[in-house]
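Support case: user asked for a sample of complex input and structure output to validate their parser. Sending the pair below.
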Amino acid sequence: MRAVVTVAGTDRKGIIAKVSALLYERDVNIEDISQTILGGQFAMIMMVETAKDEDFSALSAALDELGKSIGMSVRLQHAEIFDAMHNV
Amino acid sequence: MFGKNEVLETIDMVEKEHLDIRTVTMGVSLLPCIRGTAKETAEAVYERVMRKAEALVPTAEALSREYGIPIVNKRVSVTPVSLVTAAFPKESPLVGSALDRAAHELGIDFLGGYSALVHKGMADYEEVFIRTIPQVLAETERLCSSVNVGSSRSGVNMDAIRLMGEIIKETAARTAGQGGIGCCKLVVFCNAVEDNPFMAGAFHGVGEADTVINVGVSGPGVVQHALSFVPEADLTDAAEVIKRTAFKITRAGQLIAKEAAKRLGARFGIVDLSLAPTPARGDSVAHILEELGLSVVGCHGTTAALAMLNDAVKKGGVMASSRVGGLSGAFIPVSEDIGMIESAAAGQISVEKLEAMTCVCSVGLDMIAIPGDTPASTIAAMIADEAAIGMVNSKTTAVRVIPAPGKKVGEEVQFGGLLGRAPILPVHGGDASKFIGRGGLIPAPIHSFKN
């Protein structure tokens, strides 16, 4: 299933390493990464493809927990919501 | 496909501009629950609502997590109860309390449908039913009630309106300890719709399928934010900005509605293209109108600005959803919109101006507190005026006023939560009791004969 991971917060070392390590462990393929600095805040957007049998809630909770441990907001959302809102 | 800017825009809409799905409402038919006695009927009603809506709250919460969009309210609407209890109308409160119990156990904040449709005539059982409304609203917490008293096809039932003036007064008196909060759960409609997901006026129409999911979207803050980038735009361009924003908001609602219906084994009903405010700052319809260039909502120009906003929201939303319905438009509930509250408290908006505004947007005189000593006939006359606007203009209008017990103009009544707080607005002191006392039916307008 296509999903979007967004990471936001104060820039620091090791963010990509930690998030991508967690995704690798859970068999999630990263298809695209982009980063930007928005109002002094670091924002990273990852397009990912999760394993077919992935429990979305569990993955979401794991990312949320990782976010808390590194002081960032990490969220996972179905890609469908962005497709719906931004494409006719 | 979408890019990083679209991702960030959506996240900002949710985090900074209060974008949310305002309600996922499950409509449930109660017609299979009619039994020989009120007690058996109440039990059947309770069981059916519990069974059908059991998964509503957990499903909505899961959708909210997965799509990253808050779903604020989860609600249930049912077949107008007066139809279910027609054989034993005096005992309708038994069904009312069964529904309230179901609402508590399902974990939903409101359940709508303690309702009667009397727009062309009021049967004896319906009058008895309507007279139970004050007691039921005082004894239940989460049950909402509505009565349809007019339609463009049939005219306006002035006998029912006279009765509703008295019912509103009695409801306020029975809930006087909480500022007359019972009246916040009671709506009098003209041209009520059968698929409205919003409370307090939601009920599940008899023309509907057995179990239906209707979704109401919201996002006044998102529209205001989008307009703040074009402070010099003319109104044509401003309308375009609103349309584009409404499209995005509605697409989110459409996606959630279809997915919710699929997971709950219900039919996807409609998306209500609404701008519904809350008392939170940054979630105000009044502030959109002020963003368009009014110093305060209620001044001259307010009706025109609201007409433009309402139309643009519909045009953007219609394109975004396969089925639209409900009330669809901007809501202007005074106590539930921080901009409206502030304007009312400053004496900048009047009931008369609000009435004019209801000609060009969805619904009507909504969540307006008036002096506690307002006569029942004056309240009935306010309902008659709104019903006439709805009837002649072929639109839904409604009255949800609270004659706050013991309160006078200049004071305020607090309801808390989403219901907010309401400064008491003055009503006209003239006497309409003779007009209201005439009763009868105002005939439907000539342009209603369309066959």
